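fyi for ur records
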Amino acid sequence: MIPISEKEFAQFQRFILEAAGISLSHAKKQLVCGRLSRRLQHHKLKSYGEYFNLLQCGRNPAEIQIAVDLLTTNETHLFREPRHFDILRQLALQRRGSAQVFRVWSAACSSGEEPYSIAMVLNDCLPEGGWEVLGSDISTRMLELAQAGHYPLDRARHVPVGYLRRYCLRGIGSQAGTLLVSRAMRQKVLFRQINLNQPLPRVGPFDVIFLRNVMIYFNTDTKKQILARIADQLREGGYLLIGHSESLNGFGDGWVAEAPAVYRKL
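which gave:
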């Protein structure tokens, strides 16, 4: 593998900060090197500096998207942090019988496991047409995987058995070791490319927004900007769910903590 110099790593730190608002620590140097090395081979380039210049020339927007995809991909699984889905169930059941559609946004949904988990819960609690789920990500490659809904079986280890039977198909033969989310579920989740580091399209209002394990990648100023955009898409009294290693402390008084990593908009 071609080594990456300090100067070249700094160039890609700046690139992904400007493109997606993500701050890459020095500990991510080998990650950058590993994820971009195949693009150097693809273009027959001799250094990461040459690849950075290719991105900067502006003649290949598709390559810029590929680089962003590679540097923003995170591993996830179905029903990650199960307690949040218990809370989602409680909120959905409280709305049973309401004429208002219950809307949930999975922001930065990666390859789609989170929005499908949300959809399974809502389909179990609310009537047909009584709920909507939006999944979004900056990465077009991740969104393609999300729309396919086809995952390694080990990503389903936290899915309740009843949901596995109702909403998932286990692969056999050449597809052994994989799982496919049912067509019915895949048709009920809308996916859209959204960059949280830019002004957001008007996709709200939502009753619940999942923004989990996302803010750890942003600096303080970017976090404040993203939270302001997210709050604008959330109904008054709506809920924001973040990662358990994250907190809204110091980001204004517009939120009240309801449970670990669960906040209600005032």
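The first helix runs from residue 6 to 20. thats all i got for now
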